[in-house]
Amino acid sequence: MERTCLLPEHQGFGSQIIGFCVTECCRKPSRALCFKCMTGPGHQGHQLIQAQEENAFLAQPNRIFTEINQKLELMIRQFSKGIKYLQGILQKNYQPQPLSNFGNSEITEKINCILKLETVQKLINDRLDNIFENTLKQIKITCQDLTLGEEFKSYEFLQHQKYQEASQLINQCFQRGNRNTFLKLAQAEIFKVQDQFQDARAIYLQLLQEDDSNPWAYFENNKMLNQQERR
Ligand SMILES: [Zn+2]
Ligand SMILES: [Zn+2]
Fold this sequence. Notes:
Layout lengths: L18 E3 L10 E2 L1 H5 L8 E3 L3 H41 L9 H12 L1 H30 L2 H11 L3 H13 L5 H13 L3 H14 L4 H16 L1
The structure holds zinc ion (2 copies).
């Protein structure tokens, strides 16, 4: 793709992009460089590459990107394997079945297991809900940190408990037609902090309608329902 320099003063002959600035801390508006950019003072001392060095430059990031994806795939597999293992044990030992299916010697053990089911439920609720909540929270924060632009700024305000600033920015994004899911979750979080539980719940329900597998809306909504029951 033929591209030319964005700087108005570099327009004209020789303004094709011939290289890139790959210095991490570069604050110049454009990293795409024409001959004048490459030889001028703007990126002096910065690490510049020629356009034809692009493949070599992308090799390491490509490797890292692949590694990240492989790691996430592995996490998905191992996590669901662990849960399936738990399901297996539950089914094998604790599933209530007619006692006539068992020989006399097994019946005592079966009855013992059936009587323990409430304890089993409590164990699973107490331990796994915590893991799920923490894991989902960490995933959400990571998603937010990887987001760019104004959304990111809203999340940052939220993480520093600057609810008013976050709220303002989120509303501005909504007004501009931004339907980002994490912005909605962020708004629900602000509502909760301000004890506006009905408003928070409305957001979770709306998100669940749009996407019934939204794990954060599902988890937060359930948590609110449980809290209401306990009150
Ligand atoms: Zn230029
Ligand atoms: Zn630079």
